[in-house]
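re: the backbone from monday

yeah here it is again, tokenized this time
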């Protein structure tokens, strides 16, 4: 299976990479900047060998669609290269960089024509939002399609839990002597029951065999209502180092910043401590419970696609009429290359008829 696409329980690294969208309610002063689709990326999870025993490799742990972009947002420069690379990976980003500005503008212009649903020559916030949601959905289902064959070993168009376990953990289970490091052994022993718990939650009919929709929920739990408790629980388990069932301020900070040099904390970390006190710890008891964690990572009143669409209009709307002409988009094409609206540039390298 392709290691960057899936493995383990899919997008557990995704949210840590994608993180809390900048501009989210709950923090004064956050800028609205492009945010990767929830399940983009950086998923170096467990890499199975198709049809054989997958040798586990290092991976990140959980899906956290709205949580930890705090550090990234403070490191972002004025450009969009970080966002571009976060979505495409450096190799793909480098490939896109081979396009001339003229080629980029031409291909982006064709995408603008597709986004303009009523063909009135303008892109509204609503049209951009609809397009971004379409891009997000396409990514999710293409991701599942790419890895499906690596797990559906008997080709019955379902993925049984035993198939998944064999493909992902078979090497570890049959060669435990190769995992001498205590940390590695603990990690894999922890991941297997977590994956089983997530799989069974996604398996709505309880037959221990996932349909495509159920497997999509397994890999992308933040996209499914019935999986949200799993997302919250995995987040709690990963951050709650003292295992008291809560996330205190130090645990919250440690999840995004390691003060290895022992010096003073950067200003952005100090700001995050204030964020925790003012906006995360809703009942002011000094820690976050599951309900507060859900409010943090899965806010009910925040629409990622709408926030991105508003950001694009705000930054590109030269005449301030709250809609964009093609010329306004093309004049600010660098932003759209680094935006969800073009899958951080990926759509520009596709034939526009595929979109």
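seq for it, each position gets an aa:
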């Amino acid at each position: 299976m392709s290691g960057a696409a899936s493995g383990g329980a899919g997008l557990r690294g995704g949210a840590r990479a994608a993180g809390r969208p900048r501009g989210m309610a709950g923090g004064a002063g956050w800028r609205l900047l492009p945010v990767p689709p929830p399940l983009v990326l950086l998923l170096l999870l467990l890499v199975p060998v198709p049809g054989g025993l997958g040798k586990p490799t290092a991976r990140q742990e959980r899906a956290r669609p709205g949580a930890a972009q705090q550090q990234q947002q403070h490191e972002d420069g004025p450009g969009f290269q970080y966002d571009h690379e976060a979505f495409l990976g450096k190799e793909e980003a480098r490939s896109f960089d081979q396009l001339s500005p003229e080629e980029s503008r031409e291909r982006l212009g064709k995408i603008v024509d597709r986004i303009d649903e009523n063909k009135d020559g303008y892109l509204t916030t609503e049209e951009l939002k609809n397009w971004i949601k379409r891009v997000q959905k396409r990514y999710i289902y293409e991701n599942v399609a790419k890895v499906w064959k690596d797990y559906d070993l008997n080709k019955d168009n379902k993925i049984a839990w035993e198939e998944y376990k064999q493909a992902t953990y078979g090497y570890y289970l049959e060669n435990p002597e190769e995992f001498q490091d205590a940390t590695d052994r603990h990690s894999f022993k922890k991941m297997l029951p977590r994956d089983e718990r997530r799989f069974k939650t996604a398996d709505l009919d309880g037959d221990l065999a996932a349909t495509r929709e159920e497997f999509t929920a397994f890999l992308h739990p933040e996209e499914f209502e019935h999986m949200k408790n799993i997302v919250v629980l995995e987040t709690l388990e990963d951050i709650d180092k003292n295992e008291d069932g809560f996330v205190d301020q130090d645990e919250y900070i440690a999840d995004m910043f390691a003060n290895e040099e022992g010096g003073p904390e950067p200003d952005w970390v100090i700001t995050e401590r204030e964020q925790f006190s003012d906006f995360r710890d809703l009942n002011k008891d000094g820690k976050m419970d599951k309900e507060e964690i859900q409010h943090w990572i899965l806010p009910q009143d925040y629409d990622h696609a709408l926030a991105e669409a508003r950001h694009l209009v705000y930054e590109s709307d030269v005449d301030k009429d709250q809609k964009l002409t093609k010329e306004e988009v093309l004049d600010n094409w660098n932003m759209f290359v680094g935006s969800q609206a073009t899958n951080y540039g990926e759509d520009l390298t596709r034939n526009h008829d595929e979109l």
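The beta strands are 122-123, 159-160, 209-210, 247-248, 287-288, 324-325. The chain has a mean pLDDT of 74.
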